[in-house]
DNA sequence: AGGCGGCTTTCAATGGTTGGAATAGTATTG
DNA sequence: CAATACTATTCCAACCATTGAAAGCCGCCT
């Protein structure tokens, strides 16, 4: 029912035909932005949802998605919605900092978990946050804040503090220059105290955080080193506040972290003089 | 090199300039084929290696890779090589059939593992193979054939048989029409026996495979169902041949698989076919 | 019985993409 | 130390994959 179906002459000033408002973004970026739409809360999405969130026309989204589905990066459910596919998961499992450390650490995490029956976590740093690589939990454990694959702030979690303490100086300054992420149930640390804490973490190999939010818990974390002596991950245990005293947990966590480090090729050199002088 | 270096006028018959040998492949496919180059054996690759294996010119590969790195799908190591990135792993962790079932199944896998101290596996089907989603192993367990993220044949592994038995009829016929994948250390099954085996698996909820290759082991697997009653995964245990009798393991594996199924929303209806469960 | 929303196909215009060539950097060899 | 070989990176003109409005479908709600 077009009100003016007659005149097929758009006349002058009507280049409405070939219009391409905002071409210019590389195809890959668009495809990746489609993947980025998926989140903890959005695990199954329709075409239009994907198109909307990735900010592109439906036909374009469909074409890209079809390719992703053909390859296996996405899968289509019976109801027409799309989910992240096993093929992508498969490739991602080759990520050294993802499944790589996980695979090596898992047996030790299991031992720790079996002995304590509390949450055991493994996390790595990605940019300005910690990413949870693994979490072992019994069915009846306390409520926990983070899920595997999720992100946590550096300044207000035990694993975060460990990873931050192990990062290079410049990065630490960058982080401290920024306002801290608000984290519910965790006391915010003034900069001075944070610096002292980080220094302590480096010295003792232990970070500790008490939080009250999802539930009253204490987290104890310890760094995992690679062969070059860099902190590549943080191992932690989360227990209900008041159950096992933290100072009892610390040695177990440290021991587990050291075991993992050793398996990563870290030479647990005795204290000092670990300076390598190579490349500027 | 050029026999006529003088005249800078290419003159006629010099179409060497604009040559387009084999353009025509969508950009995404190329990017994905770069990701596909990574494998268990190739976890860190140089630009030229990637370009070679993905069969594309280095500049093209570089451009695509740069985008992938910018997004976090790949990461660049200090030595210039590329590895799969944490960001990709993060998105992949949203895969329902990957980390999804894993997350739900993990506590039960842990229980089973803790009691038996043998390998516990979780696998899903992707196309014509099983993909290993999770594997719990103690540090001192027997040698094992597959790694998490790896693939296994459907016809010659316990999890494979379970997944095959749970697939739709048409798919099963497709598989059986093809020559079986050669698998070292596993006796090949003639079609008739395979059909009988699959039928047994459906009836009893248990598949069993004895293999001699990496070491002498027996695998016992059982299906995991979703709310619709489809087989979405297979749970299995792998023990050294001659240790625990398989008929002792079967109930434990079945129970664990059922527990996972229930958590996935499966209503364990009492099937008419299963009137006597203890096969006598 | 019509409107609405989402999904899919079509197609001409075009700009992102391409890859040879050249340059720069780096490791290996004589 | 030069020669060699390889890899990584930049450049750019030709061009084809990509684009998105438009229109056709389909199912659903009213």
Uncertain runs of chain A are 1-22, 271-280
* Helix/sheet category of chain A: alpha+beta
Between the first and last Cα atoms of chain A, what is the distance in angstroms?
73 Å
Bin the helical content of chain A: 25-40%
What would you call the quaternary organization? homodimer
**CATH fold call of the largest domain in chain A:** Beta-Lactamase
* Element-by-element helix/strand order of chain A: HHHEEHHEEEHHHEEEH
Q: What top-tier CATH class of the largest domain in chain A fits best?
A: Alpha Beta
Features:
homodimer, 280 residues, alpha+beta, Arc Repressor Mutant, subunit A, Beta-Lactamase, 2 domains, six-stranded antiparallel β-sheet, two-stranded antiparallel ribbon, 9 helices, 40% helix, 18% strand, globular, disordered N terminus, DNA-binding
What does this 3D model show about the protein?
The structure is a homodimer of 280-residue chains. The first copy, chain A, has nine helices and eight strands. The longest helix of chain A is centred in the middle third of the chain and has 21 residues, at 96-116. Mean pLDDT of chain A is 85; it is low at 1-22 and 271-280. Chain A has helices spanning 27-37, 47-54, 58-71, 86-92, 96-116, 158-166, 169-177, 191-204, 246-263, and strands at 74-76, 82-84, 119-126, 129-136, 151-153, 207-211, 217-225, 231-240. Chain A folds into two domains: 27-90, Winged helix-like DNA-binding domain superfamily/Winged helix DNA-binding domain (Arc Repressor Mutant, subunit A, Orthogonal Bundle); 96-263, Beta-Lactamase, CATH 3.30.450.40. Chain A has a six-stranded antiparallel β-sheet with strand order 5-4-3-8-7-6, sandwiched between helices. A two-stranded antiparallel ribbon of chain A has the order 1-2. With 280 residues, chain A is an alpha+beta fold. The interface between A and B is large, with 55 and 55 residues. The structure holds a DNA duplex (30 and 30 nucleotides).
């Amino acid at each position: 029912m077009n009100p003016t179906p007659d005149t097929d002459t758009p006349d002058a000033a009507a280049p409405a035909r070939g219009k391409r408002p905002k071409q210019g973004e590389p195809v890959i970026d668009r495809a990746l932005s489609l993947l980025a739409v998926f989140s903890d809360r959005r695990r199954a999405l329709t075409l239009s949802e994907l198109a909307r969130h990735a900010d592109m026309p439906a036909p374009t989204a469909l074409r890209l998605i079809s390719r992703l589905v053909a390859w296996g990066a996405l899968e289509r459910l019976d109801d027409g919605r799309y989910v992240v596919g096993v093929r992508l998961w498969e490739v991602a499992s080759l990520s050294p900092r993802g499944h790589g450390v996980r695979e090596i650490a898992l047996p030790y995490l299991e031992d720790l978990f079996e002995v304590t029956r509390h949450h055991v976590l493994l996390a790595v740093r990605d940019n300005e946050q910690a990413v949870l690589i693994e979490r072992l939990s019994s069915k009846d454990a306390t409520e926990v804040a983070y899920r595997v694959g999720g992100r946590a702030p550096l300044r207000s979690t035990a694993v975060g503090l460990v990873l931050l303490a192990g990062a290079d100086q410049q990065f630490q300054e960058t982080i401290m220059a920024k306002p801290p992420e608000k984290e519910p149930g965790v006391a915010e640390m003034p900069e001075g105290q944070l610096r002292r804490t980080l220094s302590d973490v480096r010295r003792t190999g232990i970070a500790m955080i008490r939080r009250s939010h999802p539930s009253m818990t204490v987290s104890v974390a310890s760094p995992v080193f690679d062969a070059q002596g860099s902190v590549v991950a943080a191992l932690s245990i989360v227990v209900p506040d008041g159950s096992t005293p933290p100072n009892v947990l610390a040695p177990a966590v440290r021991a587990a972290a050291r075991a993992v480090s050793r398996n990563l090729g870290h030479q647990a050199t005795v204290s000092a003089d670990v300076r390598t002088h190579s490349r500027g």
